Amino acid sequence: MVNRTQTLVLGFFVVVWVSVLVILVATPEVYDLALRLPADHRIVELAVLAGLSGFIGLLVVRWCGGGVGRSG
Fold first, then answer.
1. Cβ contacts of residue 39 below 8 Å, gap of 6+?
2. Residues 50, 14: contact at Cβ < 8 Å?
């Protein structure tokens, strides 16, 4: 069962991920500038997006998935 705090954290991660995705799709120049990449490096951009997605997924699974190590 997910409590209110977990829902808030999950919502935050969803907003962060969607924001990065929207920036990548709508204005890839901003993404290039933030990563300091030359133009047309979609593979690197997608790799960063995949890494960020994996990291957020790991945090979500750890935050909501396991009671391992929790007391009480």
1. 29, 32
2. no
Nearest to 9 by CA among 52, 54, 72, 62: 62
Domain coordinates in residue numbering, the chain: 16-61
Identify whether the C-beta of residue 33 lies closer than 8 Å to the C-beta of residue 45.
no
Q: What angle do CA 62, 66, 68 make, to 5 degrees?
A: 110
Distance CA 28, CA 21 (A): 10
pLDDT in tens, 47-60: 888 998 999 888 88
| Contact between residue 63 and residue 14 where contact means Cβ atoms under 8 Å apart | no
